[in-house]
Design brief:
By secondary structure, the protein is mostly helical. It has one domain. The protein contains four helices and no strands. The chain is rod-shaped. The two termini are 15 Å apart.
Length: 106
C-alpha cells in the first residue's frame, strides 16, 4: 500500500510540474491562472497522500507497540494469578529485544 501511495505522490508532483510548465508557456492570463490553480490542487493532493502515508506508518508502529505492551501486561497479570506462569514470565523477559521492538519487527 505504501508503495502505491508513493507512486501516487510522485504522479501528483509530475502533474503539478506539467501544469506549472503550461502556465509559464501560455500568454492568456485567464488560462495561466487556471494552470497555476491546477498546480496548487495537484500539490495539495500530493500533501494529502503524504499525510495518509505517514499516518499509515504511525498506526502500524503504534499497533505493534500496543500488541507488545498487551502481551507484557497479560504476562504480568498471569504471573500474579498463577505461580506456574513465573516460567513464562521469565522466558518472556529473556526474549525482550534490547532495541525498539517496533523497529525490529516487520
Amino acid at each position: 500500500m505504501l508503495e502505491q501511495l508513493s507512486d501516487q505522490i510522485r504522479v501528483c508532483y509530475e502533474r503539478a510540474a506539467e501544469a506549472k510548465t503550461k502556465a509559464d508557456a501560455i500568454d492568456d492570463p485567464v488560462l495561466r491562472i487556471e494552470f497555476l490553480e491546477m498546480e496548487k490542487r495537484w500539490l495539495t493532493l500530493a500533501r494529502s497522500y503524504g499525510f495518509t502515508e505517514s499516518l499509515t506508518v504511525f498506526t502500524t508502529a503504534n499497533s505493534r507497540w500496543r500488541r507488545w505492551f498487551d502481551q507484557l501486561h497479560e504476562l504480568i497479570r498471569d504471573q500474579h494469578r498463577r505461580p506456574r506462569c513465573a516460567k513464562a514470565w521469565s522466558d518472556f523477559c529473556g526474549s525482550l529485544p534490547l532495541s525498539n521492538p517496533v523497529m525490529t519487527q516487520s
